[in-house]
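Schema walk-through. Below, the input block comes first and the output block second. Nothing else is stored per chain. Lengths vary across the set, and this one has 220 residues.
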Amino acid sequence: MKLSVLIPVFNEEDTVESLIRRVAAVGLPLEIIVVDDASTDGSRARLECLDVADLRVIRHPENRGKGAAVRTAIAAATGEALVIQDADLEYFPEDYPALLAPILAGTADVVYGVRDLSNQPLVRRVGNRFLTLATNALFGARLHDMETCYKMMRTEIARSLPLSSDRFEIEPEITVRLIGAGHRIHEVPVRYAPRRVRKLRPWRDGPHALWTLLKFRFQN
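--- output ---
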């Protein structure tokens, strides 16, 4: 089974090359689809210099957000399964085999990587746990980490989801769309090394994520 690795990139010049080389070294049949969301640092130059097999780079002419980049990458994917991968080295591509195993075994079509959040800064940790609890309460789910980047699924399922979010609200939208379509989300533990500097702002993006959950729960 070929895996499509979807990497949204915005101003990740310090980590993107290392991340892509780690993805390529995982040892699975895969393609790497990078969507450069109009980076203004040296990310574009780094990507242009990379000589990595099965790497495709798509560029947005203007910054549209992580959700828009994920949607662009889903449309371009050719693998039977796909996974979202941030470019900031918080997650470990070496965990792909563990995520893919339930899909290969036929026991799951959607797999989330569950993080140990104990090393996260307090505000982010509380926010992530609250949003997961809200998802479970609103949609009858039993998830442990709704906000995880590592969402792996069969490509046909991803393409069936009518996704519309442009920014970080893509995380709750993917989840509620999957639940609404009747897909069971299988979970496996993954490694996680939180960095201190992030583009996501809890006091701005957290309320947007909660609003996304409420919107999809109570929309007509």
